Amino acid sequence: MDASTDLHIVLPESLVAGLDRLAQERGQRRVQVLREAVAEYLVYAEAQRLTAEMQAYVADMAEHSDAFVAE
Length: 71
What we know:
Shape: elongated
Structural class: mainly alpha
Number of strands: 0
Strand content: under 5%
Low-confidence stretches: none
Largest sheet: none
Radius of gyration: 21 Å
Order of helices and strands: HHH
């Protein structure tokens, strides 16, 4: 496992209630659910970033498509 860093966060009570409910349903501790949620969000954010990069690349290439068609 990677080295760990202790973080302290403040969450609204409604999020804590949902977090506790989910942790109890899964038979996990809060921290385990939070780790999983953060990991999944980071994967999602990276996918969003890559999608934006690809869309920008396609848009850039579309500007030059006349040159390819002419060849």
